[in-house]
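REQUEST ID: PR-0412
SUBMITTED BY: lab tech R.K.
PRIORITY: routine
TASK: structure prediction, single protein chain
INPUT:
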Amino acid sequence: MAGRPKKFKEGKHLVELFTEFCDEIKANMFLEVPTQTNFCRWLSRRFSPCDRKTIYNSLNEYFPTIKKQFEQLQSDTIAEGAMLGKYQQTMSIFALKNWCKWQDKPEPVSSDAADDGFLDALEGKAGSLWEG
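STATUS: complete
OUTPUT:
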């Protein structure tokens, strides 16, 4: 993206900051929700001024490979807060479905899926442990 400087030099840095933000939410008994807006406010207080467009561009244009990791951190925090009764459950479900791509039913696994041999290796290891 010529002409628009990146706020974050690498995606790893953004993930580290978002992890710290989510950890702080948990430490503070889920008094805040891990929204991108709240993350921007947190970044502005601790790192440097930031807005939602910066986060959007970082996740979708500059570092798209970290988007799933970002959503996983967000979904873990929301789910944990909801399970502990800190967040309203209906809104938590809504947020998880819309922000983190959760679904009521998992997508069917294709029968063409590649077999990486993990289960066979696991069974072989378990068998040798039982026999040995």
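NOTES: The first helix runs from residue 11 to 27.
REVIEWED BY: pending
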